[in-house]
Design goal:
- With 628 residues, this protein is α/β, with parallel strands linked by helices.
- It has four domains: 219 residues, Rossmann fold, CATH 3.40.50.300; 84 residues, Translation factors (Elongation Factor Tu (Ef-tu), domain 3); 106 residues, Beta Barrel (Elongation Factor Tu (Ef-tu), domain 3); 180 residues, P-loop containing nucleotide triphosphate hydrolases (Rossmann fold, 3-Layer(aba) Sandwich), CATH 3.40.50.
- It contains 17 helices and 26 strands.
- The strands form five sheets. Strands 2-3-1-4-5-6 form a six-stranded mixed sheet, sandwiched between helices. A six-stranded antiparallel barrel has the order 7-8-13-11-10-14.
- The longest helix has 20 residues.
- It starts with a helix and ends in a 7-residue tail after the last helix.
Length: 628
């Protein structure tokens, strides 16, 4: 019988905890290594061993022997393919330390999962197949570990048995890795030759390599002096998850302490506003007077100050930076490329806010660490970027506080996670530039023309009839005595966007510029009619977000592409289908139709004049223009 549960629990509270990951290229043996660690540390129960033996017969890749990888590869797809897809976490203890290990995928397509596992680790075991040496994925994972704040690395040269336990092979791989890792800033890189399958130097030192006199892997894990992320010693950061109103007399702020300690009587400050108060009560199941990192609590304050979900309560003497611009390393995790200028959502702690990559400063080559120019980012790309949020947010540099220095990037439509970022520093270029308060606003300016300012955005395929309808709507509004401006996509490209082409990145930037101009015209009290193909939903929603609710009216000019091709007023479809025009919407570039436009015009069988009157009627119903 192996170590009983009671003894394991005793070890857990007596030992310090080390979180580490296994990483490296696919088939380097990460899952087998963890399985061997668990087995040879004698922490498996008899029923687990019996199940492992049965799974090895059904799914194993080690012949008649036990396949230790199956202890970790829990997903059926992983067992069938023989690779790790998800991040598998395992807890185990030895006599000297407790461990949480994350077995992360080696396949390039699942790099996002590896980054997730590394985000909470203090040490990385980087595996290298002795037959293959240091590969691009080995370097990519090492770079991600460095960016995510891991300072200690164990270089496990695995499958050393398949190269006859060669010291020369081991030394060559160690030299190759050391030359690359020297620029990553690791505190320590400890190389160990191992055979995960047969257990050489995993738990017990091997007699097959008399030339190696260092520790086994478990000895290294037990003794390496890793300083954990001492969150309790950092300044207070308490992100508010939600505002708890049990009744009219109770207003509490619920969340989890990210760092530092908080207790009754402490002065706290709302990071973004500077409003301060004192902690009146800390509410938990046990009712403590103080709480540290990881504690889920509800805090009440002595004063009625404005605190919302996403705000961070902080120490008044050690505040985070507050800015709407910062520089960060970004790991892109989606098949759809990152587009500078496109509006995404960012979630930092409990705060969700629109975010835009304003510039990709450079992409990092994971093989050479060379800084490369990049107009966009693709799957698994790592880059250093400037970003801007819709409103100022509170943050710390990632190296100072992982919890308030990291963020994820989210697609605004599908809500899927697209990327992850680690903040390097705030960009204070606009710190001395403030909004100038004006005595006249858009409402006063619009009142002169008896109208409400708005953007009326016509979108649809080329040849759908957008410009024709928009022109007729403007004529009708002008005849009614209203002040308008028409921005047409073709006309804008002769001036404002004359430097842009028709790639996806250029289309994003074109709409961003047009949206900003339209916003300024709305501030002038105008009704701004915009006629742009604007094929991407994200950019249309970005423009919507520039103005107040009700000031953006999306008009979908819905014409089937066959009808657009039949009309082909500019001869563009014929050129695109002949290959003479690239990136043409509807031919070799996509169009994302609005799911719920304010006005939906189906043009087949209806005249442009009828559709223009329909738009004007809708603007009257929305009180943008008054009834005659």
């Amino acid at each position: 019988m192996h170590t009983p549960a009671a003894a394991r629990r005793q070890h857990e509270h007596e030992c310090d905890l080390l979180r580490f990951i296994t990483a490296g290229s696919v088939d380097d043996g990460k899952s087998t290594l963890i399985g061997r660690l668990l087995h040879d540390s004698r922490i498996l129960y008899d029923d687990q061993l019996r199940a492992l033996a049965e799974d090895s017969r059904r799914h194993g890749t080690a012949g008649e022997a036990i396949d230790f990888a199956l202890l970790v590869d829990g997903l059926e797809a992983e067992r069938e393919q023989g690779i790790t897809i998800d991040v598998a976490y395992r807890f185990f203890t030895t006599g000297r330390r407790a461990f949480i290990v994350a077995d992360t995928p080696g396949h390039e397509h699942y790099t996002r999962n590896m980054a997730t596992g590394a985000s909470n680790a203090e040490l990385a075991v980087i595996l290298v197949d002795a037959r293959k040496g240091v590969l691009v994925q080995t370097r990519r994972h090492s770079l991600i570990c460095a960016l995510l704040g891991i300072h200690h690395v164990i270089l496990a040269v695995n499958k050393i048995d398949l190269v006859d336990f060669s010291q020369a092979t081991f030394d060559r791989i160690v030299g190759d890795y050391a030359a690359f890792a020297a620029q990553l800033g690791f505190t320590a890189v400890i190389p160990i030759p191992i055979s995960a399958r047969f257990g050489d130097n995993v738990v017990n030192r091997s007699g097959n390599m008399p030339w190696y006199r260092g520790p086994s892997l478990i000895e290294c894990l037990e003794t390496i002096p890793v300083e954990a992320d001492a969150a309790v010693e950092k300044p207070l950061r308490f992100p508010v998850q939600w505002v708890n109103r049990l009744n009219s007399d109770f207003r509490g702020y619920a969340g989890t302490v990210a760092s530092g300690r908080i207790q009754v009587g402490d002065t706290v400050v709302v990071a973004t506003t500077g409003h301060s108060s004192r902690v009146k009560e800390i509410v938990t199941g046990d009712g403590p007077l103080a709480a540290g990192p990881g504690a889920a609590i509800t805090v009440t304050l002595t004063d009625e100050i404005d605190v919302c979900r996403g705000d961070i309560l902080v120490s008044p003497t050690a505040r985070p930076e507050v800015s709407d611009q910062f520089a960060a390393h970004v790991i892109w995790m989606d098949n759809e490329p990152l587009m500078p200028g496109r509006s995404y959502l960012a979630r930092l702690a409990t705060k969700t806010t629109p975010i835009t990559v304003t510039a990709i400063k450079y992409r990092i080559d994971p093989n050479s660490r060379e800084h490369l120019a990049a107009p966009t980012l693709g799957l698994n790309d790592i880059a250093f970027c400037n970003l801007a949020t819709a409103a100022p947010i509170a943050f710390d540099p990632y190296e100072a506080n992982r919890r308030t220095g990291s963020f994820i990037i989210i697609d605004r439509s599908s809500n899927r996670t697209l990327g992850a970022g680690m903040i390097a520093f705030g960009l204070r270029r606009g710190a001395n530039v403030h909004w100038q308060r004006l005595l006249l606003g858009k409402r006063q300016r619009a009142a002169l023309k008896r109208q409400q300012p708005a953007i009326v955005w016509f979108t649809g395929l080329s040849g759908a009839g957008k410009s024709t309808i928009a022109d007729l709507v403007e004529q009708r509004l002008h005849a009614m005595g209203h002040h308008t401006m028409l921005l047409d996509g073709d006309n804008v490209r002769h001036g404002l966007s004359r430097d842009l082409g028709f790639t996806e990145a250029d289309r994003v930037e074109n709409i961003r510029r047009a949206g900003e101009v339209a916003k300024l015209m709305v501030e002038g009290g105008l009704i701004v009619l915009c006629s742009f193909i604007s094929p991407y939903r994200a950019e249309r929603e970005m423009v919507r977000g520039l103005v107040a609710e009700g000031e953006f009216v999306e008009v979908f000019v819905d014409t089937p592409i066959d009808e657009c091709i039949r009309r082909d007023p500019k001869g563009l479809y014929a050129k695109a289908m002949d290959g003479r025009i690239k990136n043409f919407t509807g031919v070799d570039a996509p169009y994302q139709a609005p799911p719920a436009p304010e006005i939906h015009l189906r043009t087949v069988g209806t005249s442009p004049e009828q559709m223009a009157e329909s738009v004007v009627a809708q603007l009257i119903r929305k009180n943008i223009v008054p009834r005659a």
